[in-house]
Amino acid sequence: MVFGRSKKPIVNGLRNDEQVLWNDKGRNKIGFLKSQKIIMLVTNKRAMYADEDSKNIISWCNLDEVTAVVSNRQTRSTTSGYGNNLNVTHNNSGNLEFIKNGERVLGFTNIDNPDELLDRIRAVTISNISTRDYVSPSRESLPKLQQSAPKASEDPLAILKMRFAKGEITKEQFEEMKSMLG
Predict the structure, then answer these.
(1) Separation of alpha carbons 64 and 166, rounded Å
(2) Which residues partner with 103 through β-bridges?
(3) How far is the C-alpha of 11 from the C-alpha of 113, rounded, in Å?
(4) What CATH number does the domain containing 142 carry?
(5) Phi, psi of 129 (to 5 degrees)
(6) Other beta carbons within 10 Å of 106
(7) CA distance linking residue 20 with residue 115, whole number of Å
(8) What is the DSSP letter of 138?
(9) What is the DSSP string of 28-90?
(10) 11 lies in which domain range?
């Protein structure tokens, strides 16, 4: 599982305004005994499957048109070491479903840390909605003092949400910084 940007395109057909938030490889069952190697991918705009060999997008949905939910949460514990040096590691996994009008339109099965990915998606979609629906007045209609006001892209909370969505900061750091902003 990868959070953040990649130097070369992970799949064909990404838009210029899309930034990769998460990707992982998996298998898509296409028959009784057949499966297809796929790339599961979430950008700041869409969730999608792509063929691993051709890198072509197979199926996708716009994040602002769906509701993302986690289902089938599981915790796996792994023990390593011996004697007094036992280490127990807990790994969370589950499914991430994308729902539109009550119907599942896309889903990622058995992925690691689905709640963390869901938090990133929510941070991005909230940021997209808050900036997308705002219509700014023309510059001529604003008083001179307001013309130096920061743009939406310079809004500290929007920047913080994007940093969290990209994986640059942890959830704890996000919450702490958000409370400091007020």
Answers:
(1) 17
(2) 100
(3) 22
(4) 2.30.29
(5) -65, -45
(6) 19
(7) 17
(8) P
(9) EE-SSS-EEEEEEEEESSEEEEEETTT--EEEEEEGGGSEEEEEEEEEEEEEES-GGG-EEEE
(10) 2-181
Q: Three-class SS of residue 175?
A: helix
**C-alpha torsion 56→59→2→125, nearest 10:** 130
CA-to-CA distance for 127 and 122, rounded, in angstroms?
A: 8
Strands across the sheet with 20-29, in order?
2-3, 20-29, 35-43, 46-51, 57-62
Let me know: does 171 contact 177? Beta carbons within 8 Å.
no
Q: For residue range 34-91, what is the model confidence (pLDDT) as tens digits?
A: 888 999 999 999 999 999 999 999 999 999 999 999 988 887 766 776 767 767 666 7
Tell if the pTM clears 0.70, that is, is over it.
Answer: no
Query: What is the domain count for the chain?
Result: 1
Residue pair 91/63 in contact by the 8 Å Cβ criterion: no
Task: Match 């119907």 to its residue by tokens.
Answer: 103
